[in-house]
Specification:
The protein is of the alpha+beta class. It has 19 helices and 10 strands. It has 2 domains: 180 residues, 3-Layer(aba) Sandwich (D-Maltodextrin-Binding Protein, domain 2); 215 residues, D-Maltodextrin-Binding Protein, domain 2. α9 crosses α10. The chain is globular and about 60 Å long.
């Protein structure tokens, strides 16, 4: 009988290694670490079909909240502990970990996998020295979601290219706290991939950046002050209570249950918000590009959640079989069959966007495809910068820096600090981290 952990119970290394070396060839157990996002929950549910097709491979699941997942898999792979055989990781980690020799290359894939069907910007972000080191489960850019009924009621029209100034005015007009409708929902939960993913993109839009060309942090600057003041003010005035507890999943739930007038976040949410089985406002959702600030044409959001195989895995062949299954065209068709085309993992394959069924079910499909195809995380900030990335800085130290700064920025929402105090604290802490890490590198 296939053994599956549907409750997120964390299985230890000893359990993984309990399969004897001789039995592993015929009967393998792989442990999969993933995030508790909706698409991954579906993957876990549908994995019974993989096990039916591969009766010699059993799956154990470790399903974690985003910040915890990142901490666990980073610790595991850096220490070569070998607890996980498949890791759900981002396009931030893939090239950095590939350079360290921590990931298995995804080469010699079967022709049926159709590597060329993977969208080029997504594929390029997972490539190091000409080889893929992760296979994309879903990918995203970012966009603005809004309630069309609330806009109609207030006599508002969303522009084709909204500015942050316009968005602030809209949020003020559609907020109705007496009825628990909040004009703007944004990530407030601390974390380099939670609140700082959005905050970094906002800073970019106001002409700011993380570091100058000498790797000196540039946090305590006018551009950051403008961005964080906007962020803090709009959430205090028009946001839901307890914003510092709200990450992607929490805001998704708020919007889907009718409590958000607008939400600026990842394009992957479109398939969830337009799904009538999951969203009470599915027929009242409009979308627009990310707002623009004082600096236009900067780096743009590109993220993917990918399945990678750590070099420390003892079950690489079985892990590869699962990873290729879960990121294949066949898996996308399986999700469409089980849950409807609007719910398929987006952003990875041209064939998805060529499907008439998907285009019919997902009114946002063309918008998202274009947003990903033109995404430019290597784009120029207003002042020259030594790193790449739109919603993160693609250096190993950023995971720690972004999380620490994220906690400091969250303090401006809870009233623990002013914007000026937060920026000074974040600047000092980041300067110290960069010195300890030996920047500027010789």
């Amino acid at each position: 009988m296939a053994r599956r952990n549907r409750t997120g119970v964390i299985w230890g290394l000893a359990a993984v290694l309990s399969v004897s070396a001789g039995a592993a060839q015929a009967d393998s157990t792989i442990t999969i670490a993933t995030v508790n996002n909706g698409d991954m929950v579906v993957m876990q549910k549908l994995s019974a079909q993989f096990e039916q097709q591969h009766p010699d491979i059993h799956l154990r699941w470790v399903v974690l909240e985003e910040n915890v997942l990142r901490q666990r898999v980073t610790t595991d792979i850096a220490t070569k502990a070998g607890q996980f055989d498949v890791m759900t990781i981002g396009n931030y980690e893939v090239p950095i970990w590939a350079k360290q020799g921590w990931l298995e290359p995804m080469d010699n894939l079967p022709a049926s996998y159709a590597v060329d069907d993977l969208l080029k910007p997504v594929r390029d972000a997972l490539t190091y020295n000409g080889k893929l080191y992760g296979l994309p489960f879903y990918a995203e850019s970012a966009m603005t979601y809004y309630r069309t009924d609330l806009f109609d009621k207030a006599g508002l029209k969303m522009p084709d290219a909204p500015t942050y100034e316009q968005i602030r005015g809209f949020a003020d007009k559609i907020t109705d706290k007496a009825h628990q409708v909040y004009g703007m929902c944004l990530r407030g939960k601390p974390g380099w991939g939670e609140n700082m993913a959005y905050v970094t993109s906002l800073v970019d839009a106001e002409g700011g950046q993380w570091f100058d060309m000498q790797w000196k942090p540039t946090i305590d600057t006018p551009a950051w002050k403008k961005a964080i003041t906007y962020y803090s003010d709009i959430l205090k005035t028009d946001g839901p209570p307890g914003a510092t507890s709200n990450g992607f999943n929490e805001n998704l739930a708020l919007f889907g249950s009718g409590h958000c007038g607008m939400w600026i976040d990842a394009t992957v949410a479109g398939g969830l918000l337009y799904d009538k089985k999951q969203s009470s406002v599915a027929d009242k959702v409009g979308f627009a590009p990310m707002p623009t600030g004082s600096y236009k044409g900067g780096p743009t959001w590109l993220w993917s959640w990918n399945l990678g195989i750590p070099a420390s895995s003892k079950q690489k062949d079985a892990a590869r079989a699962f990873v290729t299954w879960a990121t294949s065209k066949e898996y996308i068709r399986l999700v469409a069959k089980e849950n409807g085309w609007v719910s398929v993992p987006p952003g990875t394959r041209q064939s998805t966007y060529d499907s008439p069924d998907y285009k019919s079910a997902a009114p946002f499909a063309g918008f998202v495809l274009n947003a990903i195809n033109v995404a430019n995380p290597k784009g120029a900030t207003e002042q020259p910068r030594p790193y790449e990335g739109a919603q993160f800085a693609a250096i190993p130290e950023f995971q720690g820096i972004g999380t620490q700064v994220g906690q400091t920025i969250a303090g401006t929402l809870s009233g623990q600090s002013t914007v000026d105090q937060a920026l000074k604290t974040a600047q000092s802490a980041t300067e110290r981290t960069m010195r300890q890490a030996g920047y500027p590198k010789k």
